[in-house]
């Protein structure tokens, strides 16, 4: 029998009590698994050998009462603004985490009764089943919902947190069951009929504890990232406008820039960086290029792997050569801040003409220039220069015209090193979060299917 432990940064509290073990298939002569109707197995796309020992197939309606929602009349003000929280699906779309602790709107007892609504007890599973299908949350206080939900009130023998994870894993199946032309919707009967693999209550709790510990670690990583980003924003403003602490005592006011140290120069970005210095076009011989289109910058400062394509199949917008240290500035929809730095460029890296490619001149720190590109004043500058509604964009000249304070090369390097170190911390935290997200999915798949079992013995 194989043994292993699932753990997370903040998950030791929960997982220290549980060991995850893989049960191998039993040989001939061992106790057989309970018989399960073929129809249910077919719906779950499993066979009898995949039903874990001690588990059973159940319909969702057997383990939880399915409760719909509704909307009181908006024409009756006496139905609104009461003491009963009332939730709509968009509140789950915006929710970070597992628990819903309130609502934007509330209704009165009269509103509740007029719409035939029920108050869902705390610990219910809110499940969106209309338009946006399959979002789930656990309410921490009694609550009511609109018609976009078919929520689950657990029956005895069912653990709320386990049910949350179980239903979360069924999102694709729920979406498949959605019907309707205007709004896709999953009916109450369809939710009730959803087949699930049901472990004993003690194992439900053990599974939930493991998955909850991983989610806590993800939330902890989110908090670290958010706090470090706030620190970066504060440092960015201070260092790019006032320089290193204790280095300056005299100041000057520069129109369009603000107050900067008296020894700094006010320069345009185009004065210290080449804008699109090297172009690319298809030559007489075919070659492999690595192409970055506008979607390659997946978030400010984050670049996906370039796409390898044969040059004779390159899109017409493949025009900008990119070298190590170059800065990409998306000139299309600049409000999305498609800005990034290419630390190490592979051979034949080509970017879309939708980017302005910035190459710092000799004597100018590319890292310092990049930090200005990532600043709020630069984003504001491009926002003011944007033209077009259907296709909002700026020109490379608009990028070049951004004006900022330039210190000595030595101070540029020192400022950039401070900010780069903070960026590196954020990048590490994001990588750790990505690992945790991947672990959450794989561990959930293994535990909720019973392929990996949780030892419930306390250590």
Topology of helices and strands:
Elements: E1 2-4, H1 12-15, E2 19-22, H2 38-44, E3 56-59, H3 60-63, E4 64-68, E5 80-87, H4 90-93, E6 99-100, E7 105-107, H5 109-114, E8 125-130, E9 132-139, E10 144-145, E11 150-154, H6 160-168, H7 171-177, H8 188-193, E12 195-198, H9 201-242, E13 251-254, E14 258-261, E15 265-268, H10 269-272, E16 273-275, E17 288-292, E18 297-299, E19 302-303, E20 307-310, E21 318-321, E22 327-330, E23 339-341, E24 349-352, E25 355-360, H11 366-373, H12 376-385, H13 396-400, E26 403-406, H14 409-449, E27 453-455
Parallel strand pairs: 5-10, 6-9, 17-24
Antiparallel strand pairs: 1-2, 2-27, 3-12, 4-11, 5-7, 8-9, 13-14, 15-26, 16-25, 17-20, 18-19, 21-24, 22-23, 22-25
Helix pairs in contact: 6-9, 9-14
What's the short version?
The chain has 459 residues and is an alpha+beta fold.
* Number of DSSP helical runs: 14
Strand order of the largest sheet: 16-25-22-23
CATH topological fold name of the largest domain: Helix Hairpins
Look at the structure and give the CATH class of the largest domain: Mainly Alpha
> What is the CATH superfamily of the largest domain?
Bipartite methylase S protein
What number of structural domains do the residues give? 3
């Amino acid at each position: 029998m194989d043994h292993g432990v699932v753990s997370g940064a903040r998950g030791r509290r929960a997982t220290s009590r549980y060991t995850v073990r893989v049960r191998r298939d039993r040989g001939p002569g061992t106790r057989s698994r309970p018989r399960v109707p073929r129809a249910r197995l077919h719906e779950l796309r499993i066979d009898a050998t995949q039903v874990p020992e001690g588990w059973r197939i159940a319909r969702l309606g057997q383990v939880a009462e399915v409760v719909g929602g509704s909307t009181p009349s908006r024409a009756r003000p006496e139905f609104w603004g009461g003491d009963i929280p009332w939730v709509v699906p968009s509140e789950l779309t915006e929710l970070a985490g597992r628990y819903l602790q309130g609502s934007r709107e509330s209704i009165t007892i009269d509103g509740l009764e007029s719409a035939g609504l029920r108050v869902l007890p705390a610990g219910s599973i809110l499940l969106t089943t209309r338009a946006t299908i399959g979002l789930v949350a656990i309410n921490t206080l009694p609550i009511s919902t609109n018609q976009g939900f078919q929520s689950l009130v657990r029956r005895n023998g069912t653990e709320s947190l386990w049910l949350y994870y179980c239903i979360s894993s069924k999102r694709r199946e729920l979406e498949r069951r959605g019907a309707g032309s205007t709004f896709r919707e999953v009916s109450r009967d369809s939710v009730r009929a959803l087949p699930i693999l049901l472990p004993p209550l003690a194992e439900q709790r053990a599974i939930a504890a493991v998955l909850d510990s991983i989610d806590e670690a993800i939330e902890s990583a989110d908090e670290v990232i958010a706090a470090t980003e706030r620190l970066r924003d504060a440092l960015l403003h201070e260092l790019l406008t006032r320089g290193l602490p204790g280095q300056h005592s005299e100041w000057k006011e520069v129109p369009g820039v603000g107050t900067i140290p008296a020894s700094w120069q006010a320069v345009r970005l185009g004065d210290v960086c080449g804008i699109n210095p090297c172009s690319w076009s298809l030559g007489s011989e075919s070659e492999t290029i690595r192409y970055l289109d506008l979607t390659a910058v997946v978030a400010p400062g984050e670049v996906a792997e370039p796409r390898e394509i044969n040059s004779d199949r390159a899109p017409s917008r493949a025009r900008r050569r990119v070298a190590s240290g170059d800065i990409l500035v998306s000139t299309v929809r600049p409000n999305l801040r498609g800005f990034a730095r290419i630390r190490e460029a592979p051979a034949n890296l080509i970017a879309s003409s939708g980017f302005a490619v910035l190459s710092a001149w000799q004597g100018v720190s590319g890292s310092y220039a990049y930090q200005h590109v990532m600043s709020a004043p630069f984003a504001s500058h491009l926002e003011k220069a944007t033209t077009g509604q259907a296709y909002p964009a700026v020109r490379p000249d608009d990028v070049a015209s951004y004006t900022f304070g330039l210190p000595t090369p030595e101070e540029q390097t020192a400022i950039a090193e401070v900010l780069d170190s903070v960026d590196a911390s954020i990048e590490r935290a994001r990588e750790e979060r990505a690992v945790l997200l991947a672990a959450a999915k794989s561990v959930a798949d293994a535990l909720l299917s019973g392929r990996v079992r949780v030892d419930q013995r306390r250590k």
